[in-house]
Amino acid sequence: MPLVYGCISAYNEEWNISKAVGSLRGKVDRIVLVDGAYEGFEMRHPRGLACSRDCTVQCAVESGADFIILPGRYKWCDEIQKRNAYLIAQPGDYYFVLDSDEEYLGPPVSVDLLSEGRVWDVPFKRTDMDEYIPLFRIFRHEHGLCYRETHHAVWVGNELLNKQKHELLVGGLVLHHIGSHGSEYLEARGRYHHVLKEKESEARGRFGL
User: Fold this and answer.
1) In terms of residue numbers, what domain contains 67?
2) At residue 83, what are phi and psi to the nearest 5 degrees?
């Protein structure tokens, strides 16, 4: 039976991580937290590690995280490498991505519903700002799946995920705030596709795809 993995990337988020993990508990099959600094953050923990300096990991475990992935002695190269670390599922399983300062407010993410291939309008709450985040949120694991060029874009081989067959990308294309209106959703959706188009064009030019 395919599983749904709830995936969170965090660094020094002890004030938020319990809410984020807790909002996924009972709504996905597995919760994966990837912790640690990457380029642009502090290099070392006082004990020589690049993991969070606060109680992020402890809070995540106490709140129900099933897997904790740490960077080891040195920080992640970048956020792309860090996000790729939580792609640990098997082909056919699904990922549901949540940021560490967000709470998922929707119903359980069911494989039966995901397999129907419908687009979800996924409600969430973000603690630090009121904006739309152009991230892939619910998608299926396939061989060759990875974040590339930016942590906003997921690729399968040489194609952006949204160019793949529909059942790979079944989540809300833009995950937006509870209470947002139709016009706001359409604006966010347009911005989302604009971002993807720019990133795809840039990547294809760089790699000659």
Assistant:
1) 4-207
2) -70, -35
Structural domain tally of the chain?
1
pLDDT in tens, the chain (209 residues): 889 999 999 999 999 999 999 999 999 999 999 999 886 655 444 454 588 889 999 999 999 999 999 987 778 888 899 999 999 999 889 999 998 988 888 888 887 777 665 555 567 777 655 555 556 778 889 889 999 887 777 888 888 776 665 555 554 444 444 445 555 555 555 555 565 566 656 666 665 65
Q: Report how far apart, in Å, the C-alpha atoms of 134 and of each of 10, 52, 100, 152, 188 are.
A: 18, 25, 15, 6, 8
- 169 Cβ neighbours under 8 A, 6+ residues apart: 136, 138, 139, 140, 161, 162
Residue 27 sits at the vertex; the CA angle it makes with 71 and 33, to the nearest 5 degrees, is 5
Q: Do the beta carbons of residue 155 and residue 142 sit within 8 Å?
A: no
Can you tell me the distance from the alpha carbon of 51 to that of 43, in angstroms, rounded to the nearest whole number?
10
